[in-house]
Amino acid sequence: MRSRDDGSTENVRPGEKDEVTRGPTTPPDLPAPQLARVILTIALLGYLSVTIINLAGVDHSAFSLTASLTGMLLIFLLQLRHSSPRARRAPTWQKSVTLGAQALLTYLPIAAFQSQWGAMAGFLAGSLLLLLPGRRAWFAYGAVGISMLIPPIVDRLPLREAFYLCQSTLLTGLVVYGLSRMAELVRALHDTRVELTRMAVTQERLRFARDLHDLLGYSLSAITLKSELIHRLVPTHPRRAMDEISEVLAISRQSLADVRTVASGLRGLSLEQELGSAQSLLSAADVRVRATIRLGKISQQVDTVLAAVLREAITNLLRHSRACVCDIEAVQEGGLVRLSVSNDGVDPAYRDSSPHSGSGLGNLETRLRAVSGRLSVARGADGTFQLTAEAPAHLIRGVPDVDDDIYARGSAA
């Protein structure tokens, strides 16, 4: 068995329980946010090593080599900045300054190192894709790639060298762009999973509070009412008082069982059983009950929700009215189940403004929405109150409950 957020239960096939408990898991080959950032850094260092190897193959002075290493270090730091999500949220003037600095560090050394420095242009191409908007980014990216045709031609190298440098620049730009975006998306996915976990915890807290309200509110009201009745009966009708004490003990035991089932998440209610309990309780409170019941087969989920509606209606009747008559109607017509509870003895001006007045009707609306139902209330000037709940007798199989899906995904985290 497993529970749904509306309180109903359903069978779980062997082997399915663990899947529900764990929820969807992250694919094992998806890197952690820190690992994705490390992969990006290693890739950038790898491209820097290509330029270092190119420069090492040609004789240069100590000053030029020092200047080239300093330039590569500055480009590396600028690229790390451009690859971070903060860079894309930076003001336009900051983007212009850092992109301009990277462009100068990319193109000025070409005058001294010619084609050996050309590999650094791939970083600039990737930064332009990351920081510029839309078409401007792709236009600038292509312009950087085409510009790398010039150094090999000036050095009178074969055309294949010019094509290779252009192609490698464009490819490096795509790799830098893709790895930077991957690191950002992995971080976003991680943050989303954390948020889903928080939502799942919140949903479970709401379910627990809702179930406690629906179960214990009714049971404690019944215990209070019957205890007051026993207090009146003890002097004059001790035998009947003993019978009422037995009922109080039964209700207390049931309340304890209800608390345990709420904690374990497994609980189901029956509308027909609740109808019988409600009539017995109202009769003990000297409320005349007129019941009309025409029910057929109802799905367990709808049965539980409507039983919870009836419990809340009776609890409110006992707490907020001095009813003499209560009409209960539970009928099933044309695939729709309608539950109506109306009573007199309500003060039309009554409004419970206490901080602990409860949220029973709000809970019921949430439950009924989960089964495609609706709840309506009507107050009459003559002190009458009517609560009506409607829901389909049978739910379409295979339609997932949103709360259940969030809970299943979050419980694994």
From TrEMBL:
The Signal transduction histidine kinase subgroup 3 dimerisation and phosphoacceptor domain, residue ranges: 204-267
Keyword Ribosomal protein belongs to the record: no
Coiled-coil stretches noted in the UniProt entry, renumbered to this chain: none
SUPFAM superfamilies, sorted: ATPase domain of HSP90 chaperone/DNA topoisomerase II/histidine kinase
Bias type Basic and acidic residues, positions: 1-21
GO molecular function, one term: protein dimerization activity
Region listing for Disordered, in residue ranges: 1-29
Keyword terms: Kinase, Membrane, Transferase, Transmembrane, Transmembrane helix, Two-component regulatory system
Annotated InterPro entries: HATPase_C_sf, Sensor_HK_TwoCompSys, Sig_transdc_His_kin_sub3_dim/P
GO terms under cellular component: membrane
Highest rank taxon of the organism: Bacteria
Entry's transmembrane regions: 35-56, 62-80, 104-132, 138-155
PANTHER family: NITRATE/NITRITE SENSOR PROTEIN NARX-RELATED, SENSOR HISTIDINE KINASE DESK
This protein's name: Histidine kinase
Organism of derivation: Streptomyces scopuliridis RB72
